[in-house]
Design brief:
This protein is α+β, with helices and mostly antiparallel strands. It has 14 helices and 35 strands. Strand 24 and strand 25 form a beta hairpin. It is globular and about 90 Å long.
Length: 715
């Protein structure tokens, strides 16, 4: 309940609908009656949660399109406090008070009630102290939060669904309680939602868990109801609202509380009529929520707060495309030449790495034997000193766990992570984890990890380094999930080392554990790529070749727009995606009566073929290309088997024939190509067998007809 003075103010406000009470009582200058705030805390929401779930309502907020005149400053790389474990208690207190555990005294879930809320009050308490006539509401779904001292007019502990409806009713004026007369307007509303954390604990705090992602979708729907209530207010056009959203922690597996990037990385957004649209600069923290809200209500932020006001300082926008500050780009298409135009070519420095067909785009580099690696040397363009932002990028594929902790690319002596330099790593834990290491000395060493990866599919890896803020690790899976973790590198000093930048080895070239992996489309920029640029390159797992984004080459994938001449022969490889794995058409080593079985190799290998075109026609939806497909090296021509079982025929390569006529149905999307043939009067479609043995699937002609989707790439 309010004090007697506050009750007088509340009564006057109900009668006069003014804020004259402030002047009468000699308090601070009143805030505008049209000023309102909504602070939402979503428990257990990782920084990449919104990225990977269906969140149309939050997407509109982030894009600045949820309401006319509103813009949003956003960070998918915001951080929790680090002076307490990333658990709910200390971080809830931080979100509400603007201070970290060192000041609040709350270091875990068990001592929330003992926090120093006199010296570091709840932001709703500060609002009430500055203007007791304000109507403030505190809605939580975790009983421990009721131990956080605050002066809100109403305090409710209920489940997510109930409190979402409470928020809607409060905003629309239909809520009533003993100290909240129906029709009371709301000035500041705090809403805490808990169910995302419950879904993470039920299985996994990860984009690959349906339960976790679906709960984020549900929370987005709940937030959508609250936003609709705001927009439906009769005087909304004349009101000045602020929406702040953040979280208390991320997670790993089914738990959190670990001092690591995947537990620290959370979202933060602030939306209002006065903030800047874009990505927040520096290092946003969840405890920035309280000062940001206070500033919106016109209050001076207490000097003892650790948090800062967010919304005006955003990262510079790039309007010059992918070419801007691109330093080196290795497509690995037949050589190790730099395609950026800067002549920073790589060269083989150890072993015999090979360039093979069937990469993510064109050819790729395979590192397989011990001490196989290539080097970029030590050009000044790859010196980033203590204040130059930069980005490392590559597509990555392996067929199993790494041994030891090998380097994807780096320039330091990996005998110790405290040595000067930078590394992008292929094993930060269990043989299948990505990570970043950066340091100028042992005092400022930073490790940003881990992100688990799967086998036999192409992963996009992008590591961005904002030298005044965060290093952010993006890992895009073959199945469409973009994992994101980040860590503070603002105090890391000069990272220039005296060693080379090597790919597949550390800077010495003699590290014990050599990388055994496939790499494609490697690039370095002297700036930090944005999330939007990473999304463009990742393209939901389908990928976009940097050469194409730079307009260096025409699209090499066959589509309905491709120009193919009758009588011409084109070298190609054919791939498909099965459950996130890239599988390439190949011929079997075993030969029976001059025939070899056709296989789909799901380790990502593909044998080069020659497509000889005999006819080209088109209709409204597709380009129809007929011809013959022959495996290079005299390994046979593609045909259908005369034996049929359950409407299926085996696909073969016959060394003694020119093959059977096939037809390609090429459509707008290169990944949706169909390959068909006529077998004994039936239309049969090429497909892959559902059964997999030793990473291989048989190739079949299904004469039902059924057919799978393929991609045909010109070499």
């Amino acid at each position: 309940m309010k004090t007697n003075t506050q009750s007088v103010c509340q009564t006057l406000k109900q009668i006069l609908k003014t804020s004259l009470c402030l002047t009468t009582l000699g308090l601070a200058t009143p805030t505008l009656a049209s000023t309102h705030s909504l602070l939402i805390a979503v428990d257990g929401l990782r920084g990449d949660g919104i990225e990977n779930a269906h969140t149309p309502n939050l997407d509109k907020v982030i894009n600045g399109t949820w309401a006319n005149g509103y813009k949003t400053a956003f960070a998918h790389y915001a951080q929790t406090m680090t002076d307490a474990a990333p658990n709910s208690g200390p971080n809830h207190v931080g979100i509400m008070t603007g201070v970290t555990a060192t000041k609040s005294g709350v270091t875990n879930n068990s001592n929330v009630g003992g926090g120093n809320y006199v010296t570091y009050p709840h932001y709703l308490t500060l609002l009430e102290q500055s203007n007791p006539s304000l109507n403030t509401a505190y809605l939580v779904t975790w009983g421990t939060d009721m131990q956080i001292t605050n002066s809100a007019d109403i305090k409710i502990d209920a489940d997510d669904t109930t409190n979402t409806q409470n928020a809607v009713d409060i905003i629309s004026g239909s809520f009533s309680a003993s100290n909240w007369p129906q029709g009371s307007d709301v000035d500041a509303l705090f809403l805490f939602l808990d169910d995302v954390d419950g879904a993470g604990h039920a299985c996994c705090f990860t984009a690959s868990d349906d339960g976790y992602v679906n709960e984020i979708k549900d929370v987005d729907s709940q937030i959508g109801h609250v936003l609709s209530a705001i927009k439906n207010r009769p005087n909304f056009a004349n009101e000045d609202w602020q929406i702040v959203l953040t979280s208390d922690h991320g997670g790993r597996g089914s738990s959190h509380g670990i001092h690591a990037a995947d537990n620290y990385t959370i979202p933060f957004l602030v939306s209002s009529k006065t903030v800047q649209q874009g990505y927040l600069a520096g290092i946003p923290h969840n405890y920035d929520a309280a000062p940001t809200t206070l500033a919106h209500h016109g209050l001076a932020v207490p000097t003892n707060m650790d948090g800062i006001v967010q919304g005006q300082n955003i990262r510079p926008k790039n309007d010059k495309g992918m070419q801007q500050d691109l330093t080196t780009y290795l497509p690995f298409d037949g050589n190790y030449q730099d395609a950026s135009g800067n002549q920073l070519h790589a060269q083989v420095a150890g072993g015999t790495p090979s360039l093979q067909a069937g990469g993510k785009f064109g050819q790729y580099m395979k590192l397989n034997d011990d001490q196989e690696y290539v080097t970029l040397g030590k050009p000044s363009e790859l010196d980033f000193g203590k204040d130059t932002n930069f980005t490392l990028m590559t597509w990555f594929r392996v067929s199993g766990d790494q041994s030891g902790d090998p380097v994807i690319v780096g320039n330091k002596n990996w005998a110790s992570g405290a040595n000067r330099g930078t590394l992008l790593l292929a094993n930060e834990g269990n043989g299948d984890d990505f990570g970043i290491n950066i340091a100028s000395s042992s005092a400022d060493r930073k490790d940003i990890d881990p992100i688990d990866y799967s086998f036999n599919g192409w992963w996009l890896l992008v590591a961005t380094f904002d030298r005044k803020g965060l290093a952010t690790m993006y890992a895009g899976s073959p199945t469409g999930e973009l994992h994101i973790i980040a860590g503070d590198i603002s105090n890391v000093g000069d990272i220039n080392s005296e060693l080379n930048w090597n790919i597949g080895q550390d800077g010495t070239g003699s590290y014990t554990y050599n990388l055994k992996a496939d790499l494609d489309d490697f690039a370095v920029w002297r700036r930090a790529l944005t999330l939007d640029e990473v999304r463009t390159i990742y393209n939901k797992g389908q990928g976009a070749e940097l050469n194409s984004l730079l307009n260096n080459v025409q699209n090499r994938y066959l589509t309905k727009h491709s120009h193919l001449d009758i009588g011409q022969s084109y070298p190609v490889v054919i791939t498909t995606t099965v459950n996130g794995e890239t599988c390439g058409l190949e011929w079997d080593n075993n030969r029976f009566f001059n025939e070899r079985n056709a296989k789909w190799d799901c380790s990502g290998n593909a044998d080069p073929m020659a497509l000889t075109v005999t006819d080209v026609t088109s209709d409204e939806s597709k380009l129809i290309v007929s011809g013959y497909l022959v495996a290079q090296g005299g390994k046979g021509a593609l045909e259908w088997d005369s034996s049929k079982s359950s409407n299926e025929r085996n696909a073969k390569f016959d060394e003694n024939s020119s093959g059977d006529l096939i037809t390609l149905w090429l459509v707008e999307d290169a990944n949706l190509t169909h390959i068909v043939t006529q077998a004994s009067g039936q239309t049969c479609g090429l497909e892959w067998d559902a059964r997999k043995l030793s990473n291989e699937r048989n190739a079949k002609w299904d004469c039902t007809p059924n057919m799978d989707n393929f991609r045909i790439e010109r070499l």
